[in-house]
Design brief:
The complex is a heterodimer of chains A (493) and B (601). With 493 residues, chain A is mainly alpha-helical. Chain A has helices at 2-17, 22-43, 73-92, 100-119, 123-144, 149-177, 187-195, 201-219, 227-234, 237-247, 249-262, 264-269, 271-290, 295-316, 319-350, 361-364, 366-380, 386-400, 410-437, 453-471, 474-480, 483-487, and strands at 52-60, 65-71. In chain A, a hairpin with a 4-residue loop joins strand 1 and strand 2. The model of chain A is unreliable at 486-493 (pLDDT under 50). Chain B is an all-alpha fold and 601 residues long. Chain B has a two-stranded antiparallel ribbon with strand order 1-2. The longest helix of chain B has 34 residues, at 526-559. Chain B is globular and about 70 Å long. The chains are: A mainly alpha (493), B mainly alpha (601).
Chain lengths: 493, 601
């Protein structure tokens, strides 16, 4: 099952490179992947929980590297997100001017790399799959980007490569920190070693910091966020969808999957730092977002800002916050992908995304207006959408940490700041909506075509996904619940 | 039977959602069908509400929304106590009338389907607030009424004023909800629950933490300040009048803005536990009542006058909550819902027939042209100014008597507000309905169609009779009639007379406004002050952060790694040439250095 999910996009990419028609093959390949992930999601049995669909292939006995796949609830939710967004990104790809095949292959590699990382139980492949996804990012921005695309491509690649480098350092130290007998790249083995107290607290502190910075760069943790807005503004819409929606979640997934369960002491030690930095994401980057004058930059910054909420759930390190963080990863992935997709459609029609040039598009593009409104309200955290359900869990989870009735402590203050961030989000997203879709129609845009019928399908798919999880968060929690109590000790309120 | 009974509230609750979905998915192009579906849904809800009300249904199934085991589970459960049953009845009843009225009012609008879908969404959300049995569920629907209000205010989104007003309403409410959510979190921390019934039992959790309790109560109150448009977050409501008039009647007068008051009554056990919070609440209500009434005296737009009057009346309700009488607040909420919906629909009838003319100085002598509208508008006005025998007389006097008993300064201000109310409503009636027609449309208008007039007639019944005990006691626990000092009715009557007489003398057969008080007309310059405040704090911070991010953070970390050694020109060149290794090496060195200092020092 997982073998198919992991290899379908990669094989499809190879097929396209070796001459199969680009769009059709890519659509079929990504659709098959998506269907397979949904099947796995439904077939996952939450009663025993744990990693299921495990398949293993020994690569090197002496290096103890195995090609090891397996999925628990968290991986499944991420796989569904990745496959769904990949499919929609492929669908949203417009006729590409130069080397269309390469474009589709890059998209599939980007999605496939993320999928592989989410399904890997082996540290080596977990890391390697992410590296695979970095290369197409460079090409997608550098070749098909807009604006100052070379600079953006280099910047994002260098940033992410350095983040990966720090991450690698952390992972190597992690590998070496467990007793020699227990050394393994197998996450399950490492987990039981850590549970048995195999990693000394001092080592935990160092390694956690490395992982936090390494993953943090990939997630655009403040102050390592600067690559993101520029890259997303330059990237072609499908690439931005996949990167902001899916690949960025790799770092968060790593924190949830590796850093937190293996290094609980380190996590506790550095929670103050994480709180400070995530407040930077929410408030500082939130304010920067407010000041943006172009939709693509605004969306780029907003995606950086919203990482703060996921970090907050992770920092809380309790059952409520972690489940919230996981659902929010999914929810954010869907809403930001939809926003970037629509922004791309607007840019394709008007050639601009500056707020001052646009206005009144709701009249000429009612469906796009409707969809953008839905996505914006989802991102604002309106009830009914997955983002709200997740944020509720994050806020409740974070607020309870260390709470007493004497006053507000660090976690409570951060939660309050994060709640103010929700106001900031509402301001910039509604301002964007106001200046693009509302107001008097501009004569220049009178003849713009609305989204064509076929393009509405991925939009509706994404909206449906966020509505289902928003109305029935238990659909996601069904598989997520067994993940967290097993890996993280509940911190008592 | 029992299954049916326990499903009935859910049917009442979900019918409007169903209607909104059907319209959005299937019947958007068929505008008349959409409208009929929406009306049918609200009528269905109303019928269910009648059954629930008269059979005294008290149980409904509960479902789980978020289930994380014992640590955290959010149910979606319905409260069915006398309070919510009556509220359900009122909301669906007024809602049904306004849906029907809308059939006439937005009859030819191109966005009719969108309008009715939003209206259905609103009904769903409002019923959610009414029925919610816990804070999180209430917050969910609290936000949803916010968004449906956004959609409806911005119905004519191509008009800049409407688009701005919608945004302002949503964001202002969000600011209130910011406090609301913190309040909910604090209550949860103290009592371990957010289900109302369980909190009420666990109030002991607050014992010995008076300050914490007061803070929590006031933060919860913040939600009501936003939703019920209390000072200082009242600024969105007058602007919200940019929406279609039936929306103003339903959402921005009768139901949604009353939700804040309803919520406060629902969590009365929390609010009443903190005397300090009560005092603050009472004063916020009083300030809102007085200031809004002052502003109402100088407005020229018929809907804005009514909007300020709504603010002022909501102030009375909040005042009653602050005086620890949820009964008095709910009593006034009910009578106000009837007479204010009536007044707004009357105004809508005029606006509709005068081709969207809203300036009262371009009306005049309309009693001849719209006799039924005029008659029902007069009934509404009498109720609003508290004319003896009308519904407003009973409910407002209950609050004023309460103030007399518990807080004399508030009593004086409340009586003064009553005077102002009588004044501005008399001004409105005289200028609009009497004198000479002052515009072409006013001279040639006719009466509105039956689909709009019939709701007016139906609403005038509760507006006139709603205060009498035989009528009101069916719906509400009425406030205890205290031994009223003779002073109260005398003062109230005097205030009424002074207001009516002075306005009559001042405005009889005037052609234009004789008095100009810029401070009142320009809303005490609060909007300007807020604009200044936002641009000088948040706006400035935003620009500053953007500058730092662009030129300092980006510059320092990305371009400035080499510092003054090579200068940024070299690095920029690196960036363009793409000397990956050198660049990466430098940056990596920086990070490793950072870690070194963080860890080993």
């Amino acid at each position: 099952m997982l073998l198919f999910i992991v290899f379908a996009p990669l094989v499809t990419a190879l097929l396209i490179l070796s001459g199969a028609p680009g769009r059709v093959t890519a659509l079929f390949g990504s659709a098959a992947t998506a269907i397979a992930t949904f099947t796995a999601l439904f077939r996952y049995d939450p009663v025993p929980g744990g990693f299921q669909f495990v398949s293993s292939l020994t690569i090197s006995e002496s290096w103890r590297i195995h090609f090891l796949l397996g999925a628990d609830g968290l991986s499944l939710i991420m796989l569904v997100l990745a496959a769904l967004v990949l499919f929609c990104a492929v669908w949203f790809t417009q006729p590409v001017g130069k080397s269309e095949r390469l474009f589709y292959a890059c998209l599939l590699l980007l999605g496939g790399g993320a999928i592989g990382a989410f399904a890997s139980l082996d540290l080596f492949f977990f890391y390697a799959f992410h590296e695979i996804a970095l290369i197409p990012t460079f090409f997608l921005i550098g070749i098909w980007g807009t604006g100052n695309r070379f600079a953006a491509a280099w910047k994002v690649t260098i940033y992410l490569a350095l983040g990966s480098f720090v991450l690698l350092l952390g992972l190597i130290l992690l590998y070496r920190s467990v007793p020699v007998t227990a050394r393994s790249f197998d996450l399950r083995v490492l987990q039981s070693a850590a549970a048995a107290g195999g990693i000394a607290p001092a080592a935990q502190n160092t390694i956690f910091l490395l992982l936090l910075i390494g993953f943090g760069v990939l997630i655009s943790l403040f102050p390592f966020h600067n690559w993101a807005p520029e890259a997303y503004a330059s990237a072609p819409a499908p690439a931005a969808m996949l990167h902001a929606g899916v690949l960025k979640k790799f770092g968060l997934y790593g924190l949830l999957r590796i850093a937190l369960p293996l290094l609980p002491e380190g996590a506790r030690h550095w929670s103050w730092l994480l709180l400070v930095l995530l407040s930077g994401n929410i408030i500082y980057v939130g304010l920067v977002t407010l000041a943006q004058k172009r939709l693509d930059w605004m969306l780029g910054y907003s995606s950086v800002m919203h990482m703060g909420y996921i970090f907050l759930g992770i920092a809380s390190a309790n059952l409520i916050g972690l489940n919230g963080a996981a659902v929010l990863m999914f929810a954010h992935g869907i809403s930001i992908a939809l926003l970037f997709a629509l922004a791309g459609e607007i840019r394709r029609r008007t050639g601009t995304l500056a707020f001052s040039d646009l206005g009144g598009l709701g009249k000429v593009m009612p469906f796009a207006g409707f969809a953008f409104g839905v996505a914006a309200f989802a991102a604002i955290g309106l009830p009914g959408f997955a983002n709200f359900a997740a944020e509720v869990m994050v806020f409740f989870g974070a607020f309870r940490v260390g709470a007493d009735l004497q006053g507000l402590h660090f976690f409570q203050v951060t939660t309050v700041l994060a709640l103010w961030g929700v106001v900031i989000s509402a301001v910039y997203l509604l301002r964007a909506y106001r200046s693009i879709f509302m107001g008097a129609p501009n004569d220049k845009w009178n003849a713009l075509p609305d989204l064509a019928g076929a393009l509405r399908i991925p939009v509706i798919l994404l909206i449906t996904a966020t509505l289902i999880v928003g109305f029935f968060p238990n659909t996601a929690l069904r598989v997520l619940r067994p993940t967290f109590p097993a890996t993280v000790a509940e911190s008592a309120p | 039977m029992s299954v049916m009974t326990s499903m009935l509230p859910w049917i009442a609750f979900l019918l409007p959602l169903f209607s909104a979905c059907v319209i959005m998915i299937a019947t958007r192009p068929l505008r008349t069908l959409s409208a009929l579906i929406s009306v049918a849904a609200v009528l269905g809800s109303f019928i269910c509400a009648c059954f629930i009300f008269f059979q005294k249904t008290s149980a409904a199934a509960s479902i789980s929304w978020i289930n994380l085991g014992p640590a955290f589970s959010v149910p979606l459960g319905l409260t069915l106590d006398p309070l919510s049953r009556s509220m359900l009845f009122m909301v669906t009843g007024v809602g049904a009338l306004i849906h029907i009225y809308s059939l006439g009012y937005v009859g030819a609008d191109a966005g009719k389907s969108r309008y009715f879908a939003s209206l259905s969404l609103f009904m769903f959300a409002m019923l959610g607030i009414v029925l919610a049995n816990n804070f999180v569920m209430m917050f969910i629907f609290w936000e949803l009424v916010g968004v449906s209000s956004y959609l409806l205010i911005g119905h004519w989104f191509e008009r800049a004023a409407a688009a701005d007003a919608a945004k302002k309403a949503f964001i202002t409410n969000r600011i209130g909800d910011f406090g609301f959510m913190i309040g909910i979190l604090m209550v949860w921390t103290a009592t371990g629950s957010f289900v109302f019934a369980e909190i009420a039992k666990a109030m002991g959790g607050f014992a010995g933490h008076t300050g914490y309790l007061t803070a929590a109560a006031l933060l919860v109150f913040c939600g009501a300040v936003g939703k019920s448009a209390q000072f200082p977050l009242h600024v969105w409501l007058p602007d919200a009048m940019e929406g279609p008039t039936p929306v103003s009647a339903l959402i921005h007068a009768a139901t949604m803005v009353a939700a804040g008051v309803y919520m406060l009554v629902r969590v009365g056990f929390l609010i009443d536990a903190s005397p300090d919070a009560l005092t603050v609440i009472a004063w916020i209500g009083t300030i809102t009542a007085v200031f809004a009434a002052l502003m109402a005296t100088q407005q020229d737009d018929i809907k804005r006058i009514l909007a300020y009057s709504t603010l002022s009346q909501l102030g009375y309700m909040v005042m009653a909550v602050g005086l620890a009488s949820g009964e008095a607040a709910m009593f006034h909420l009910f009578t106000h819902a009837a007479f204010k919906a009536l007044l707004f629909l009357g105004a809508g009838s005029i606006i509709y027939m005068l081709h969207h003319e809203q300036d009262i100085w371009r009306m005049g002598a309309l009693w001849k042209r719209l006799p039924l509208t005029c008659l029902t508008f007069l009934i509404g006005t009498l109720a609003l100014i508290g004319f003896p025998g009308s519904s407003g007389f009973f409910s407002k006097d209950a609050i004023i008597a309460l103030a007399f008993e518990r807080n004399r300064p508030i009593f004086i201000l409340a009586s003064f507000t009553a005077l102002l109310t009588a004044f501005y409503m008399t001004r409105l009636v005289i200028v609009v309905f009497f004198g000479k027609p002052r515009s072409e449309q006013a001279a040639r208008s006719g009466e509105s169609p039956a689909v709009m007039v019939i709701p007016l007639l139906l609403l005038s019944i509760p507006a006139a009779l709603g205060g009498y005990k035989f009528f009101a006691a069916r719906f509400l626990t009425l406030p205890n009639e205290t031994e009223q000092a003779a002073a109260v009715p005398i003062v109230a009557l005097a205030a009424l007379l002074i207001g009516v007489v002075s306005a009559t003398l001042l405005y009889r057969s005037r052609e234009r406004e004789p008095v100009h008080i810029a401070l009142f007309r320009d809303r005490f310059y609060l909007d300007e002050f807020y604009t200044f405040l936002i641009s000088s704090t948040q706006g400035l911070l935003a620009s500053l952060s953007a500058f730092i991010d662009r030129w300092i953070l980006d510059g320092a970390i990305v371009r400035g790694m080499s510092g003054g050694v090579w200068g940024s020109g070299f690095l920029l060149r690196l960036l363009q040439v793409g000397n990956l290794q050198a660049y990466g090496f430098l940056f990596g060195l920086g990070i490793i250095g950072l870690i070194y200092f963080a860890v080993f020092r």
